[in-house]
Specification:
107 residues; mainly alpha; Major Prion Protein; 82% helix
């Protein structure tokens, strides 16, 4: 009987690890999309926008959504772009939904 419980525990642990890995990838993908969007709002494109996005993703690893939003707001303020918290949070939620769908689909 204890083997059945051990198997079940192992299954749950594997599922947890898988879920966390998917969430990590989706968050990184969301953050890149957000950084590219912020670059566009600031009038930055091409290689400069890609570089900003890569640096932003790296800097936000392990940070909360509040930290990500604050970093984006700070960057927008430095670029003299006014954006409401509501619009930013809405875009964050939209990009996370897209990223989760993409990661789950294996893209």
């Amino acid at each position: 009987m204890s083997d059945a419980f051990q198997d079940r525990e192992n299954t749950f642990e594997k599922q947890f690890v898988n879920d966390e890995t998917l969430r990590f990838r989706a968050t990184a993908r969301r953050n890149k999309a957000l950084a590219l969007w912020v670059s566009e709002l600031k009038g930055v494109s091409g290689d400069a926008a890609e570089k900003f996005a890569e640096d932003f993703v790296g800097a936000q690893i392990g940070k909360s959504d509040d930290d990500v939003a604050a970093a984006l707001k700070d960057d927008l303020a430095r670029g003299n772009v006014d954006l409401s918290d509501n619009r930013l949070r809405k875009r964050m939620a939209e990009e996370m939904a897209v990223a989760l769908t993409s990661v789950k689909a294996g893209k």
